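Comment thread on ticket #2218

A.B. wrote:
> Attaching the input chain for the structure job we discussed in standup.
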Amino acid sequence: MSATANPFYALLPGLSRQQYQQQQQVAGLRTTTRSSISDITGVNNSSLYNDTVPITDKGQVMDKVYCKVADRYDTVLNVLSLFMNTMWKRRFVQRMAPAPGARLLDVAGGTCEIAKHYLEYQDSVNRDSASSVHVVDFNEHMLKAGEARLGGTPWMREGRVTFAQGDAEDLANVPDNSVDIYSISAGMHNLAHPERALSAAYRVLKPGGRFACLEYGHVDTPLFGSVCRWYLAKAVPMISQLLYKDGKSYERLATSVLNFPHQAQFVEAIRRAGFHMPGRGYELFQCGMMVAYIGTKPVVKI
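C.D. wrote:
> Ran it. Output below, let me know if you need it in another format.
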C-alpha cells in the first residue's frame, strides 16, 4: 500500500513524498520508510532508526533507551526544548480542564511530570483533594524516577498517586469505562502500534470521559520547520553527547519523533478510534513544535 493510498504517515500535507524526502535530506536526515497503516501493525515490518530497527522490535529498543535516560529524562528534555517543556505540559493540563474529583490515567507517565502538574491544578484551581492519578509506564526505571519525584509529597501520603507497569497498547489491568481522563504526553511516538493505544484509551474511558494527548508535531512554516527538523536530527544528538555523553539514545528519540505522523493525519486516527474531536481537533504550541489533542468519548445512549 502506498503513502498516497493511506496517508496516515504522510508527514507534511501539500508535499509529495519526493518533496518531503528532499526536505529531509536538506535537514541532514536519511529517509526511512513508514508508508502505511500495515507498517505500524508489523505486516510490512518496515524499519525505524535509519533502517536498523524493525517496527516489531521498537518497544524493546525504546525500553532500553529509557532505561538509560530515566534518571535525567525531564532535566534533559527541559534543556533540549530550550526550557519550554514545563510550560507545554502546564498548558496541556489546563486544556484538559479537569473537574473536581476526576481520576486521571496518565499513560507513559513514568517521571510523573504530568501527574504533578495535574494535582497542582486540582489543588490550586479546583480546591480539590479527592482527585487522583494512576500512572502507567512500560519502563520500570521511569516509574522509579516518578516515585522518587513525588516521594514525601502529601499526594503520596494521601494515596492520590498510584503506579503500575503496563503496556499502553492494551492497558490490560485497567477496567473498561473506569477513568475520567486519559492522558499521554510525548508517548505515542514511542509506540509501534499507536492505533492500538487509541483503542485501549477508548475502552478504559468512561462515556463522556476526556482523551488528552500531547505529542511532538510538525511545523508547517517552511523555514522554521526546516530549522526544527535540523535541530531534532542533528543538534539534539550533538548536545546530548556533549552534555551527557549519550548522543545515541537521544538520536533514537529524535528519529522516533520525526517519523511520527503529521497532526492532520494523527487527529483522523483519533477520530477513527471513536473519539469526538471538535473543530480541527488539535491545538498547536509554538507553531506545532508540540500539539495538544483533546477529545471526548461519546456518551452512548441505550
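A.B. wrote:
> Thanks. Noting for the ticket: Residues 78 and 85 are 5 Å apart (CA to CA).
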